[in-house]
Amino acid sequence: MSVLKFLSLHLVLLFSVHAVVFPTDGNFAELHARCRFRKKYDIEYIEENYFNKKKMLFYNTTKDYWIGYTPSGTDLANIFNKDPYHKDAKRAAKDILCVAHADPLYNFLQNYTLTPHIRLRSVKPTGTRHSAMLVCSAYDFYPKTIIMTWLKNKRAVTSDVISTEEMSNGDWSYQIHLYLEYTPTAGEIITCMVEHITLTEPQLYDWDPSMPKSERNEIVIGVFGLLLGVVSVAMGLIYYKKKSTGLMLVPTGYDMDPSSG
Fold first, then answer.
1. How many other β-carbons are positioned within 10 Å of the β-carbon of residue 244?
2. Which domains does the chain have, with CATH numbers?
3. pTM
4. What digits encode the pLDDT tens for the residues 158-182?
């Protein structure tokens, strides 16, 4: 899957700016500006304004409209929405903060990527109405955005699914875990589908309900050890029996010396 196709399906936050102003009266204002890339040059500029940690105003270039969240914020939104010069200023901010950084950001993503390593395993469910639980884990991938979906017989599962957030490994790579609670059904095929910018197409990982190889090996080793023990005991009994039949019993008081008497 190409960078453009992947990002056209899922909005990705690539660039953000935060500014805080501390007036002398002890209050403070905060501005969050960020860019969302749908495609390389299909970009949305978003701005949020806070006053003393309360959200006052919201604006994005898609709707080109301000929304107020407090009485004073609503008053300001009405003023800004009627001012064409103010909207022009926000479009200019989009060009400066977002459009100008599109090429460098895309080049960075294309040059620094890590393909996820997938592990599918069964875990013990806790306090659920289902008798089984699976977890599909993706390790050591970059960039952060990844899509993981459970499928049952090639159909997406939306219920009884729990996902962690993408967790940083501390070295630019990430990991994520997707859980599925279910009741095993004969003939059912359960699949974990993974989509990532490093993959040319979605990767499918079918769950094999048979026992994992490591557990099979442990059982084989255990059975072999048991058989070896049984054989050892049997050989010991045979040896003991042969040894017993070869013994000569000497009656008490019988003198075997011919010179005596």
1. 8
2. 3-111 (3.10.320.10), 117-206 (2.60.40.10)
3. 0.46
4. 888 989 999 999 887 999 999 999 8
